[in-house]
Amino acid sequence: GVAIIFQEFQDAATLTVAENISLGRIPNRYGLVSWRAMRQRARTILDQLGVELDVDRLVGTLRVGERQMVEIARSLSGSARLLILDEPTAALSHHEAETLFRFIRRLRDQGVAIIYITHRLDEVTAIADQVQVLRDGTTSLLTSIKETDRPRMIEAMIGRRMAQVGRPEAPTHAFGEDPVLRWSGAGQGETFDGVDVTVRPGEVVALFGKLGSGAEEVGESAFGIRHLDRGTLEVQGTIATFDRPSGAIAAGIGFLPADRKAGGAFAVRPVAENVAVASWPILSRFGVIRDSVEAAAFQRWRDRLSIRSRNDPKQAMGTLSGGNQQKVLLARWLERNSRVLVLIEPTRGVDVGARADIYRALRGLAAQGMAVLAVTSDYEEAVQVADRAYVMSKGRVALELTGPEISTGRLLAAAGG
User: Fold this and answer.
1) SS3 sequence, the chain?
2) pLDDT per residue over 99-154, tens digit each?
3) Global pTM?
4) Which of 20, 33, 58, 310 has the highest CB neighbour number within 10 Å of its CB?
5) What pLDDT does residue 128 have?
6) pLDDT tens-digit profile of 228-283?
7) Does 2-128 match 181-415 in CATH topology?
8) pLDDT the model gives residue 169
9) Which CATH number is 181-415's, of 3.40.50.300, 3.40.50.2300, 2.60.120.10, 3.40.50.10240?
10) Where along the chain do its domains lie?
């Protein structure tokens, strides 16, 4: 009677959407799989969630947000009496999250007990009856949602009072005149088309869009993961045609993927190795890199980025929290002396304290002349971190906003709600 949605994907990439939703409950008759019943069940659950997906498509070909919806659908396919959700909206658009919340409320009204694990306080106030805050493994707050507020929850989470997070102060440094990244009329397949985006030294640019908007794919094209078939990408004024990520790395681009587990973090390897891996050609001597060199690289960034870990460079990456893993991946590209950072969902699954640390680090890097592109489906993130923001909808740039123009209302309106 217990169903769990984990923060990290627990799907089978080589199976279809329908097969993933039915895992553990495959409909059969006399030992033979009923494929028709399986597909029908999958379509019914996805319809209830308001999700349009081909149930015969392989899960490994889906975008991160689509995979998240398949995970949610699988957990709802049984008759659970206790549903545990760990950061279920981390990769969802605002509209998809609202659809999920309505479904959760319906389950609650039907008598299902729900444990909802999240770092997003607006979600807590939207759906919770009780709130329990854990800090360093102990309970720092346990109360009815009606008897607390956002400042009190933040204080319980990080152990200190924190000013209301909003628009960053206007930068005091000047932006570079010539873009280090420029997409001109860029397009790729059916995912995006006619994209014109620039990122200059010294600024943080948000590329905001809902799931399926094409924003994530634009970001991936800067790192050789996707290849343009229309228009151009210029890096430092030179047209770039990266066949693979190694070309982007050589051009000074660092990249954080949306899915840390699959595309960035080496969970069973030491944190020091995770920091140094992109810099091995620079740090090694005669093709050999010493443990002490990797350890020094890790220590350089541990304090600067407030990475909360043991003072042990051999600590396994997978033992860190999501926020601290993200800081380690950021340190990887800073150690490499990257001039441009392209970050896909930079604070997905990250608590409010680590999120503030990452935003502070990004603004500090921009102040030192680095160019930062944050691709995000989190409208609050775009408001809080960006000097400039582009909004993507249906594969095209729908709006560009600068400074004080960047607001939740304008972002959501341009993105289609």
Assistant:
1) CEEEECCCCCCCCCCEHHHHHCCCCCCEECCEECHHHHHHHHHHHHHHCCCCCCCCCEHHHCCHHHHHHHHHHHHCCCCCCEEEEECCCCCCCHHHHHHHHHHHHHHHHCCCEEEEECCCHHHHHHHCCEEEEEECCEEEEEEEHHHCCHHHHHHHHHCCCCCCCCCCCCCCCCCCCCCCEEEEEEEECCCEEEEEEEECCCCEEEEEECCCCCHHHHHHHCCCCCCCCEEEEEECCEECCCCCHHHHHHCCEEEECCCHHHHCCCCCCEHHHHHHHHHHHHHCECCECCHHHHHHHHHHHHCCCCCCCCCCCCCEHHHCCHHHHHHHHHHHHHHCCCCEEEEECCCCCCCHHHHHHHHHHHHHHHHCCCEEEEEECCHHHHHHHCCEEEEEECCEEEEEEEHHHCCHHHHHHHHCC
2) 788 888 888 998 989 999 987 788 899 999 999 998 878 999 999 999 998 888 87
3) 0.70
4) 20
5) 94
6) 999 999 999 999 999 899 999 999 999 999 887 777 788 889 999 999 888 887 77
7) yes
8) 62
9) 3.40.50.300
10) 2-128, 181-415
**What single letter denotes the amino acid at residue 156?**
A
For residue 159 the two structure tokens come to 């152990």
